[in-house]
């Protein structure tokens, strides 16, 4: 196919804030939150913290003061109805539906390609739909700094100040401070590092040089695509073919033909890590509270839901009795749940599946999903 060549990077006279477009990738099933989170109703469609707002709605609401209506959302075909019901503000041309999961490289890359063809001076910011962040004001300040830094020709990540030696997150090694008007916190990035062992994580924490990688990227779309083209040319070509048809009557046909052929790769490997090696990545270290709600222990920690004695209870109309027990109950039924003399328990009750585990074992819930899939019990997944 013949795709247009990307122009050399230039500068726009416009205020960088006016060039900003928020991208919300809403993918993944959240298997460690089964049976609450499933393929047809992934975790971002749920209110997991008792705040009264689903994760995807909360993501949109904290970005809207910065982006206004300039929001592009990437999600699966199967979630269109639920997403449109929760976010009626998103215009049809800004709703990107994946025919099948292809990882973040394709999702974020297609968003960049669509926005580039509409306006090559756009600065995009990608923020996952399934994160819990507070206070919102600190997050918004960090995003504004990231936008001003991106306008200088950088791919910018927002690093989270680590509060403990986590082995579940990747890390960003922070380099020298950068001089950027409007972004006093900006630093260069030395490199991204994979999820470490406990011992290595402790050294990261002690050094003060590392931040958690929350997967938030703010960048000129031209720069994102330039690195994508250099590192993953096959993916780049396919995404540009879809993007060229996006605002035409050929959108559906071209997407249906090309999307299944795209390689699967995370945006970190396709763009962020090689860009860091090239000196094109900056970081805004931030100290707001951040969690990707990866398991039921996280829900117990984050939830503002009511407590029945020492048990957190999530679910409208949940009927729970406790005696000498601690933990969390998530109920999607009217069934009475009685806990007696059991500590740190996790109970998730849905009409067709029941999970009973402990907070300490909550990361292993994904093993149940894999086992059920092998047994052929896919109707509950």
Protein model, in words:
Helix 2 links the parallel strand 2 and strand 3 (about 95-100). This protein has helices spanning about 55-65, 80-85, 105-120, 135-150, 200-205, 220-230, 235-245, 250-260, 265-275, 295-300, 365-375, and strands spanning about 20-25, 70-75, 95-100, 125, 130-135, 155-160, 170-175, 185-195, 210-220, 280-285, 290, 305-310, 310-315, 320-325, 325-330, 335-340, 345-350, 355-360. It is globular. Mean pLDDT is about 90; it is low at about 1-15. Helix 3 crosses helix 7 (about 235-245). It folds into two domains: about 15-290, Spore Coat Polysaccharide Biosynthesis Protein SpsA, Chain A, CATH 3.90.550; about 305-380, no CATH class. With about 375 residues, it is an alpha/beta fold.
CATH architecture of the largest domain: Alpha-Beta Complex
Structural class comes to alpha/beta
What is the terminal separation in angstroms?
Answer: 39 Å
Q: CATH H level of the largest domain: which superfamily?
A: Spore Coat Polysaccharide Biosynthesis Protein SpsA, Chain A
CATH-defined topology of the largest domain: Spore Coat Polysaccharide Biosynthesis Protein SpsA, Chain A
Q: Order the strands across the largest sheet as they lie in space.
A: 6-9-7-8-10
What's the β-strand tally? 18
| SSE order | EHEHEHEEHEEEHEHHHHEEHEEEEEEEH
The number of distinct helices, counting runs of at least 4 residues, comes to 11
What's the Cα radius of gyration? 21 Å
Number of domains: 2
Largest sheet descriptor: 5 strands, mixed, barrel
